[in-house]
Amino acid sequence: MSVLVGKSAPSFSAKAVKGETIIENFSLEQYKGNKYVVFFFYPKDFTFVCPTELHRFQEELAEFEKRNVAVVGCSTDSEFSHWAWLQTPKNRGGIQGVNYPLVSDINKTISEDYDVLAGEYTTDEEGNIEVIGELVAYRGLFLIDKDGIVRHQVVNDMPLGRSIRECLRVIDALQHFEEHGEVCPMDWEKGDAGMTPDQDGVSGFLSK
């Protein structure tokens, strides 16, 4: 698994769906210099754990917006699958009401670039390409700053849902560091004391 933290987020241009609108050339570049981005991957439309996550991001969307963070989802489904799922009511397993963009990674290239694609390609003795496993995305999440740099990533296996609370906590920690120059110790929460590094950059003390 690649570690993208500290590196530029891989760029792409792909189809996406927002509400009832299919966007032909969606890119995270539109946010660069202006917004932070939480870019998250999920395995499949019309499944079980995935809608709990997508609805939860929608429920907390105002909290992300207060922090100047754009939320963008992505899976290896087509834009038409995204569109159909977005028009399906929640009580029928759909995600109607979700209004942040969902990117279609139908060619698997985005998932590969972010190194969250499950399954793998192999070649047999005759040179035929075979696939081991299923080529869908793990539950990857990437926090990208306004300069387009990945500052945090977490990847869960498919049965394991993520924590919105932890995602918001890490955003708060990053923004606290950017504003105050203080680093954030274990289990730091917004409003807690930060730490000012000593000159050696290692040890520090809690600020008041």
From TrEMBL:
Hydrolase in keyword set: no
BP-aspect Gene Ontology terms: cell redox homeostasis; cellular response to stress; hydrogen peroxide catabolic process; response to oxidative stress
Active site residues of this protein: 50
GO molecular function: thioredoxin peroxidase activity
Domain Thioredoxin: 3-176
Cellular component annotations (GO), alphabetically ordered: cytosol
Subcellular localization(s) per the UniProt record: Cytoplasm
A family per Pfam: 1-cysPrx_C
Transmembrane portions of the chain: none
Keyword Magnesium: no
Keyword set, alphabetical order: Cytoplasm, Disulfide bond, Oxidoreductase, Peroxidase, Redox-active center
UniProt-listed PANTHER family: THIOREDOXIN PEROXIDASE, THIOREDOXIN-DEPENDENT PEROXIDE REDUCTASE, MITOCHONDRIAL
Protein family: Belongs to the peroxiredoxin family. AhpC/Prx1 subfamily.
Function: Thiol-specific peroxidase that catalyzes the reduction of hydrogen peroxide and organic hydroperoxides to water and alcohols, respectively. Plays a role in cell protection against oxidative stress by detoxifying peroxides.
Protein name according to UniProt: Thioredoxin peroxidase
